[in-house]
Structure prediction request, 348 residues.
Amino acid sequence: MPEAAKREKWVITGGAGFIGCHAAARLHGQGHHVVLVDNLSRRGAEANLAWLREQGITDFIKADVRDAKAMAEAVARHADAACVLHLAAQVAVTTSVKDPREDFEINALGTFNVLEAVRASGAGPAVLYSSTNKVYGNLEHVKVVERDGRYAYEDLPNGVDENEPLDFHSPYGCSKGAGDQYVRDYARIYGLKTVVFRQSCIYGTRQFGIEDQGWIAWFCVAATGGRPFTIFGDGKQIRDTLWVGDLVDAYQAAVARIDTVKGEIFNVGGGPKNTLSLRELVAVLDAAFGKSFNPPMADWRPGDQRVFVANIDKAKRLLGWSPQVSTTEGVQKLLGWVRENYQLFGTW
Prediction:
């Protein structure tokens, strides 16, 4: 994507997280001023923050999105920002089931706090929100078939588009969905320049994946370290995978076109050309390591979709955006990074 014509300021909540650190590094490298906001509670956040500081990013605010006062102060202090990229979140369905209150406070209340901070500032930075395909629920009404050892939609060759009715499933789906709709409505009611990204299976380097979130990274980490890992479900479930750098491209495209896309919602994923099943990833790892991992199977997890493939036609049309990194290329890049940097995971 082309660099912006002028130097801009971006405030990134969850700036030391997986997606946040990639966005920060890209923007800083292009000459933009990046302000990181993070409570450093996520595994790997300290390592990512150190990595960003090595690159010269020093503007860091340790704060929690659940703290309305802290969010108001952070946004007011940087009222000249072009964008608030809101990535801070509780990101695992299983964690939300165990502690739905904390999930709600981080995802729903935290997003509300960010929106209110921007509204109160009166300055008008764009607000980009990382939503999720989980807002569509289990899509039980969409017929799924099995083809060549993997699931597929019978009648949606281009995937699920933004007109699919919302059907929040799991506390995580509810909390992220609440944020999704608040962000959308603040554009309508208060005139904020917001954009919602319903994201599907983002993966890449510096992703400290764990068993219940970031499955591509987790499988790569576990295989590299000889750790056991489990397939939940039957392993035939499909996701469309999106390389993290391609996602950052979409964020930048939205800000560059904010006057025409404010208030919009976009599905962003790899689309039909970039899909992967759990069993297919295991086969890639078998080939890479010259052994058969044969991970055990466990029951399906709450809210797990047999298939999710995003229809990304709207993002292509309005943002001039499309994925550039194929699933095959991206998985090899991620696996290579994990193998070269396994010391970052060694104490887990």
Summary: The longest strand covers residues 126-132. The chain has a mean pLDDT of 94.
